[in-house]
Amino acid sequence: MTVLVTGATGTVGRPLVHHLLAAGHRVRALTRDPARAALPAGVEVVRGDTTDTGSLHAAFAGVTAAHLINFGHTYRPLANGPEIVAAAEAAGVRRVTLLGGWAEGSLEPAVRAGGLEWTHLRPGEFMANTLADWGPVLRAGDTISEPYADRPTTPVHEADIAAVAFTALTEDGHHGRTYALTGPEVVTPRTKLELLGRATGRDLTFDELTPDQARARWTAQRPALQIFQVAPGGPADQADFVLRLYGDIPAAGRTPTDTVERVTGRPARTFAQWAAENAAAFHA
């Protein structure tokens, strides 16, 4: 069958494309810049943007299943969810996976109310965010400075999210399911840095800031942390938002699930595995 992958060059989309190709499916990849997609041979790369419904009609044509994401390139929830679902249904799309972001937008209720078979994927923290958050800092030095060094999280490997999406797109039995996706263990920022130190062979240091120190730093200069992409308001409001979140991780964000293993049949990858796979990216 032909599967459309939106966000095809992203953290989850790229491994999903590889899964689908390896299984013999035809893959159409939606990207805002086809010239920079760098996707494997055999992938049909088309220009489009989920925030622009008009660009999706041709992308959906002839597609049996589609992987959708609920946010655009700004990480804000999409506002055109009903139009996206209408375009998919008009093109004859039968099944979708929907990758949720920071907050529910208009796409989730539109998918639930429509006639598509759907599976909602709700990952917590991505392991890959560690590279975005800490990569530039650790390529330049050996110290991470953040508050709440021992906050509990259950980050999930991006390849495991892609594997669950692949299973839901290509196998029956997942319609109407919402899958909370986590890694197999609780880890803290301090633990993550220790594991990165082992993987890179470096002596890395965690400099734990007080909330007041972090607020002052973040207000003076917005950090390159992924969470600030979705934090509302100005610098002070964003700093307070992140501090509240870091200081009180919700239960869903610190409780491991077995969803990855139940859906895919293989255990979820650990952060130590992710660190070993990505160690080179933290070297200068």
Automatic annotation (TrEMBL):
| SUPFAM superfamilies xrefs | NAD(P)-binding Rossmann-fold domains (SSF51735)
Domain NmrA-like: residue ranges: 2-96
Q: Which InterPro entries match?
A: Ergot_Alk_Oxidoreductase, NAD(P)-bd_dom_sf, NmrA-like
Q: Which domain of life is it from?
A: Bacteria
User: Which residues, if any, are the signal sequence?
Assistant: none
Cited PANTHER family: PRESTALK A DIFFERENTIATION PROTEIN A, PTHR43162
Task: Write the protein's name.
Answer: Nucleotide-diphosphate-sugar epimerase
Organism this protein belongs to: Saccharothrix espanaensis (strain ATCC 51144 / DSM 44229 / JCM 9112 / NBRC 15066 / NRRL 15764)
